[in-house]
Amino acid sequence: MNAESLDGRLLFAIPKKGRLHEKCMELLAGADIQFRRHHRLDVCLVKNHPMALVFLPAADIPSFVGKGNVDLGITGHDVILEAKMEEHVTEVLQLNFGKCALQVQVPEAGSIKSVEDLAGKRVVTSFEVLAGEYFSKVDDRLQLAGESRTKIEYVSGSVEAACALGLADGIVDLVESGDTMRAAGLHAIATVLQSEAVLIKANSPKRTEHASLINLITSRIAGVVAAGRYVICEYNIPRESLAKATAVTPGRRAPTISPLEDENWLAVSAMVEKGRMAVVMDELVAIGAEDVLIFNLDNCRV
Ligand SMILES: Nc1ncnc2c1ncn2[C@@H]1O[C@H](COP(=O)(O)OP(=O)(O)OP(=O)(O)O)[C@@H](O)[C@H]1O
Ligand SMILES: O=P(O)(O)OC[C@H]1O[C@H](OP(=O)(O)OP(=O)(O)O)[C@H](O)[C@@H]1O
After folding, report:
1. Is residue 65 domain-shared with residue 107, that is, in the same domain?
2. Beta carbon of 178 within 6 Å of any ligand 2 atom
3. Average confidence score pLDDT of the chain
């Protein structure tokens, strides 16, 4: 592929590997962004839009978008702050995956119990900017100066091994399930920030002709994300219990209510947040609902 074939195309950056890659592939399919990625090629043309995908490390995406070389991107909120790009990009959508927390961790068995205990000692991390800012505030608060301030050291991966290897007294690393942390004999003593994957766009794009395509792609991706967040709940309810039942399933705008052949009963259909699904079903059954059905959404525009 040559540079000319990218002329006039919107550039959309996607994490090339790691935790966010697979979910991004699902989002692109759900948004009907069609492409064929040739083996080892990191740029590929989209067949059904004037767009090209660029596959990049998640950590590099904020600066490509922030500098306007790339128009749209998907990456973690954490790496946007680590790259100091929060004023150069707009987080257009939260994508409801890649959820994790950047936490200060220390050996479970050791004598360090708090951030104040750790201050002034050695901290190893892949997030040297965020860890540096965090401990700089702690050091200021404790009035630590010069050699007494916390020493932050960068490593690019396997951060959790640093304490066992004698390189660090504590680490700052991402935690999702906590399995990695526990397996390394560590526990969290503070949270620096919460993160999830986000769709970002350039605040100062090099090309301005793509605004309407950016809006179209954003709305398609928003539809796929919402489809993963909601289910459709349908049930039958005795007419006299309708008010109680619709208080449990108010829907996004309002529930759909249809008559049944039996005039004492009504059918209700409403969108429900996936995370509330089991509780909603419990409550509906307790109120007298029958035939409670849950349907997943493939896609939607809400
Ligand atoms: N355990 C996790 N759970 C959820 N999201 C995560 C997790 N680890 C990382 N992330 C998110 O994914 C982003 C990229 O992290 P990842 O470790 O996949 O990066 P990578 O260095 O590009 O890939 P790899 O680790 O394969 O080299 C992080 O900045 C964070 O936003
Ligand atoms: O709390 P958990 O669910 O165990 O997830 C946390 C781990 O996930 C990430 O690493 P990843 O597995 O992506 O590999 P990496 O160390 O190569 O970045 C992160 O750096 C932690 O090590």
Report:
1. no
2. yes
3. 96
52 three-class SS: strand
- Ligand 1 site residues (CB inside 6 A) read 17-20, 57-58, 76, 78-79, 98-100, 174, 176, 195
**Structural domain for 283, as ranges:** 230-296
Residues 6+ apart with CB under 8 A from 125: 131, 152, 153, 154, 155, 159, 171, 172, 173
Tell me: do 26 and 44 sit in the same domain: yes
Whether residue 234 contacts residue 268, with contact meaning beta carbons closer than 8 Å, is answered with yes
Q: Report ipTM for this prediction.
A: 0.95
Taking the C-alpha atoms of residue 56 and residue 54, their distance in angstroms, rounded to an integer, is 6
219 in a domain, yes or no? no
* 156 ligand 2 Cβ < 6 A: no
Domain boundary among 209, 240, 274: 209
Closest residue (by CA) to atom 24 of ligand 1? 18
115 and 261 fall within a common domain: no
Say if 216 falls within a structural domain. no
State pLDDT tens for residues 146-155.
Answer: 999 999 999 9
Please give the model's pTM, rounded to 2 decimal places: 0.91
Q: Whose CA is nearest to atom 17 of ligand 2?
A: 157
Co-location of 204 and 64 in the same domain: yes
